[in-house]
Amino acid sequence: MFYNPEVPLRKHENHLPHWQQDSSWVFITWRLADSVPAGLMEKWQQERDEWAACHPKPWDSETDSEYHELFSTRLEEWMDQGMGDCLFRDPKYATIVAEILLHFHGERYQVDSFVIMPNHVHLLVQLMPGFSMEKNIQSWKRYSARAINEARNESGSLWHKRYWDTLVRSEEHFWKIRRYILHNPAKAKLQEGEYLLYVPWHK
């Protein structure tokens, strides 16, 4: 259920290498296209790409912590500032994303928990063998963008093209991620109704 260095990994490229291991839990984040100004994002991506080239995946816990300290924390702070249109402050749009995430729950993947923030999504999920992370994310983005654009009577791209993922290394790491999802709305100082949280049970 957690990353095992003795079990084969599958690698695919989407701007950066992404690693998948059958039946392992993975923490995935993706965001709306307007959630971070382009200038900030370009500098962040350049720094992150240069760092990642010197630190190939899979990472040990120390390298993973360094990555999050250098890059994830900064990106989260920007997203939590509520930049962009923040479509998911409106529950009807957040609900569309939630329903799509749960559509194949129990068939293609097992959803443990997620939070739909005003301009981004955090998801803790276990992918079933034979169903790739990349294809699932493409499907979630495609169908949610189509449904939301129809509801808004608009067209065009909705999601940023990149996403970020981390293989869950241990039970301790699993619970740390789950607590992060649970407490992210409070950390961003959101009010009830400005986010959609799916955590069926928690310690």
Instruction: Tell me the number of helical segments per DSSP (H or I, 4 or more residues long).
Output: 5
- N-to-C terminal Cα separation, in Å? 19 Å
E-strand count: 7
Report mean pLDDT, rounded to a whole number.
85
Describe it for me?
The mean pLDDT is about 85. A hairpin with a 1-residue loop joins strand 1 and strand 2. Helices cover about 45% and strands about 20% of the residues. The protein has 5 helices and 7 strands. Helix 3 runs antiparallel to helix 4. The protein is of the alpha+beta class.
Give me some keywords for this one.
203 residues, alpha+beta, two-stranded antiparallel ribbon, 5 helices
Short description:
This protein is an alpha+beta fold and 203 residues long. The chain is built from five helices and seven strands; from the N terminus they run E-E-E-H-H-H-E-E-H-E-H-E.
